[in-house]
Structure prediction request, 524 residues.
Amino acid sequence: MEILVTGKLHEQGLADLRAIPAVVVRYHPDCPAAQLHDLVPTCQVLITRSETSIDRALIDRAQHLRIIGRAAVGVANIDLEYATTKGILVVNCPGKNTNAAAELTFALLMTMMRHVQRAANHLQQGGWDRHRFKGRELRQRKLGVIGLGHVGHRVCKFAHGFDMEVYGYDPYLPPARFSQYDVKKIDDLATLAELCEILTVHVPLNAATRGMINRDIMRKLGPQGILINAARGDVIDKEDLLQALEHDEIGLVGLDTWHDEPHLDARLRTHARVLGTPHIGASTEEAQLAIGITIADQIKKAIEGGVVDFPVNVPYESIIDSPLHRAFAVLAEKLGSLIGQIITYTPVQVKIKYSHELGAFPLLRLSWMNGYLQQTVSDYVSIVNCAAHLQRLGIRLQEETCSLTPRTSMEVVVSDAQGNSTAVGGVIFDEDKLRLAHIDNYKFEVKPRGRFLLIRNRDLPGVVGDTGGFLAAEKINIGSVFLSRQRRTASAMAMVEIDSALSQAALQRMLSIKNVLAVVQINL
Prediction:
């Protein structure tokens, strides 16, 4: 069996891979995309890091591929849905770099607070000016932590050691968790930024978090504020950050993750008030050793038919004989992802309804959980641990079989303690054609794949045309438009398929379009 490794791996990890009986390890760290396409046709196992994009074209090229190993936790560079439908197992290494990422957060913060880099450069150049580099202490500073997953809550622990006041924003975490971490819960991001002197981001990159740190948030943080991002580059709106720096609306910025790595925008990379590192959050000897050993162990277990510890997906092709059930597992995950992106409240109950002819099928429940939690939880989520995550969030789940409308075979209803609720439904045609059937009372027939704008508006003339004109001005191409109306309430909803992402600032501007009530960007 051929194992292709395309990212740098610790020597011990490589040695462990080579010790697996009857394998050949081909080590090509950081190889360019063109070379990668030449290397993959003969491999059965592909081990990658963030630099390698595992998209549909590459998966189709690798016709013998059965296992993808991600030598880290994030899998945004892998077309996970396509790998799943092709029967390819994806494994990763969660939790191995948690401490390293949290420590780097404080390394960036302390370097900026005490001007360590500037002072060291000054000294190397022969200078000795102690008063020039007067800094600030962390004690009693107000730290705002965005995302209280494994890395975020460890940052909170470190902050308490420095006698900082710690505030947190995580809309999907129950209040009990904030109390457990001794963190003051803040219910919206703008309030957190206005309250704190330092903001640090620890969230995954998805439709809800892309560009979440925009110019409005930076302005609220203020000209003395410090912003740190060791999560994902696109969580911060790059152009908004540059504008905020240019207009002195923010003080200092520490970045370990960037937009379009490794091809960085020189305006940001060389800015005097930006302290940057080349995505070294996991680059400690301890983390890389743990990752190398773990990924080799996972690959060995997968090759030998054992149970892997960290499966990111469950290859439906290999565990579900029925094409219809495979399709419904994918649909359930899509409905979970959709709900995770459109609701603005914290649910306490989920009810999954199946049509009588489908019947209850345990994997559908897990698939829904996985789709929802991938959008809402900052920690590692897989189909294996999603039930534990849902329980940790205090969400009750019920299932029932019932008579649904002919257009719906599966419906999911989520609700919170205040009575807010959202219902989404889907249907399968011809055993493999997935369609989104409705969002609340708005009926659709939409293939749930791609990037969409979900627009709710008053049912009055001109909205579609004005929306099209707005997107044209933003240079956003429209793929298709799906409309649904409610005559009783004189309201409408549209799902507009778009070719590229809209910035958070542009989404806010869309609300100024006449008769538009709400806009959400979703990625399915």
